[in-house]
Model the fold of this input.
Amino acid sequence: MAGSLKRQRLLIALGFIVVAVAFGSQIAVVDYQSGIRYWDYEGFFGAAYTVGYGFLAWATWAWFTWLERNPISGTSLATVLKLFAIANLAFAVGLVSVTYYWAHQAISLPYDGRLSIAIPITDGLQLFGFCLVSAGLWSAAWSLRADARLASGHGESILEPADLEAPV
Done:
């Protein structure tokens, strides 16, 4: 049985929610600024992306709740969680370049009435969200691995057996 993953569960759900809200906000702001007042392909994509990451937050919450309540092999699942963490970190790294590009555009070009800073802010928020998710998954992997070590008796104990005996 896995130990408490509440902190990791909250971190991952928060990360996915930040990603979803940031991207949905970006699409809404860009469409509003562009004068698009009807449902187009970008609006549909933004809504699908937002809803999809909302479902990922919910699915992760349910999965980690299940992990806390059921006996599992922490060492094998830890590898899977680390791979998910690396994948989310790769998303974040990809967003670094996009965020830099749009921030550079917002700073270096003369302001012409556009919401030029909105795009790098929302990209930066998505980057932050993916970093939160990655940190939560990596932490959960270490937690599961530590639980598996303790369950197998290979964990290190600070107390000696003699320390556990009551004084006479």
